Amino acid sequence: MSDAGLQPERTTLAWRRTQMLLMLVACLALRGLQPHPRLVAAVIALATLLALLILVEQGRCYRRARLGMAGQGTTCNPLPLLILTLCTALLAALALIAQA
Questions:
Q1: How many Cβ atoms from other residues are within 10 Å of residue 62's Cβ?
Q2: How many other C-beta atoms are found inside a 10 Å radius of the C-beta of residue 65?
Q3: Packing angle between helix 37-67 and helix 78-99, nearest 10 degrees?
Q4: Helical segments of 33-77, H only
Q5: pLDDT in tens, 46-99
Q6: Contact assessment for residue 95 and residue 32, using Cβ atoms and an 8 Å cutoff
Q7: Distance in angstroms (rounded) separating the CA atoms of residues 22 and 17
Q8: How many CB atoms lie within 10 A of CB 99?
Q9: How many whole angstroms separate alpha carbon 10 and alpha carbon 15?
Q10: Residue 10: which region, alpha, beta or left (left: phi > 0; alpha: psi -120 to 50)?
Q11: Closest by alpha carbon to 62, among 7, 19, 22?
């Protein structure tokens, strides 16, 4: 089974699901962390920032992948992924702080 050209689309869909989950995290923070207003603000700001980062970077990544499939070679920009990973770890740390 050949799926040439579909991988960038699948990747884009996966990032869209990640964006939706980040917004869900922000909504759940509003509901579940009410006793900690500063923590709620931090979680909402961080989740929104990550969703915006994905929105901006995914368009660029999609274009690079499409050009790479056209034979022009792909380039990977690891900085947005590193930022996303670090911020996700920070979200997890904030959740642990909220539970303490």
A1: 15
A2: 19
A3: 160
A4: 37-67
A5: 888 888 888 888 777 777 776 766 666 666 677 877 887 888 888 888 878 877
A6: no
A7: 9
A8: 7
A9: 9
A10: alpha
A11: 7
